[in-house]
């Protein structure tokens, strides 16, 4: 605007004009044709502020200063640059949560450190199930078209994790390439090694649905003899990683394959803590008649009750999610009406994902913060139990062997809920590669920062920003 003013005042516009000796104080503001008329139309009279009971008018506060009323949070978080909830979470993560995670090796034990792309990623839906339960066909049914790299058949056809997302053109990107792209939320998958990345790919295609959500197709979970041929990567670990990132997890079953194999049981167990995201789909339901469907549904609920280990009944959607016409000879008129209602319910659930994505992100962030805090307490406790000089190796082995008792001590000392503690066996396995005396001592200041974030910063952030997906 200064350049426009100088040009209108008769100065020659050059590279050094702003550095020249110009009397900016007496320089007239730039004249813009039609601006005065436009402002006059837009200008509205300001409402008079009513005096309070003491007779003095209230002093208006700047929006930037009223964003966070907490003095603790105002010191640390500069909210002038925060434009949305996601930006606020990024700032809080970098300033308060990430230092705690780095200090106590949270990324080695629980989850890799977050990058900006993890916050900006679109909501994800993951499909899990045994082979030939219709996972790839389900995605094709949603998209109303095939996607690059899709293979369908009665045998285990999908042999890799395929992320179907929006892109300018139709193409498949190999896993090693997609894992190093800074704008993609898959950099954490590098921890599973090249063996996994060679079985991972991204399918991009322009599609209106993919502008809002990303779909994750998975290899069929093996059953019977096939389980003896081990996969070359940690299938359960990868599933658990995706489960933490996803907004919805669909477990697909086939009426002719209701048995839950050992591998499928391990996969479902790895979804612990994400129960609110799980939806069960009984696919290909039009292949059996009404009487058989009733028996199949009962058998499925009985099998799930033993695996999910919850007293509540899981929500099961019944339908036939493919592009073929419904087999009315088997289902009958009542079955057709039931399937249509169930499909509508499931599609409504999927449509609501973008609206709930912001709340889900906050939910996952708070869950991660609580997990990091408990992890710091555990590591700090193990460090405190180590002797100063003699018998370090013996003490470390004793602590690893009695890890469950140590968890109990931490729980009682800091009054923590037992359900928030990590899996003992997995924690013990990772601890084997560390020397406890090199761990950081517990730093109350770091814990207090995370408590302030959970108690003040995030509630204030939610108060001042509406859901960007509404």
Automatic annotation (TrEMBL):
Keyword Transferase in record: no
Any one Gene Ontology molecular-function term assigned to this protein's record: GTP binding
Region (Disordered): 44-67
Topology within the bilayer: Peripheral membrane protein
GO CC annotations, alphabetized: endosome membrane; plasma membrane
Every Dynamin-type G domain range: 119-354
Subcellular location(s) of the protein: Cell membrane; Endosome membrane
BP-aspect Gene Ontology terms: endocytosis; endosomal transport; protein homooligomerization
Main localization category: membrane
Family annotation (Pfam families): DUF5600, Dynamin_N, EHD_N
Domain of life, source organism: Eukaryota
Keyword Cell membrane (UniProt): yes
The protein, known as: EH domain-containing protein 1 isoform X4
Alphabetical list of InterPro entries matching this protein: DUF5600, Dynamin_N, EHD_N, G_DYNAMIN_dom, P-loop_NTPase
PROSITE patterns recorded: G_DYNAMIN_2 (PS51718)
Keywords tagged on the record: Calcium, Cell membrane, Endosome, Membrane, Metal-binding, Nucleotide-binding
Gene for this chain: LOC104226361
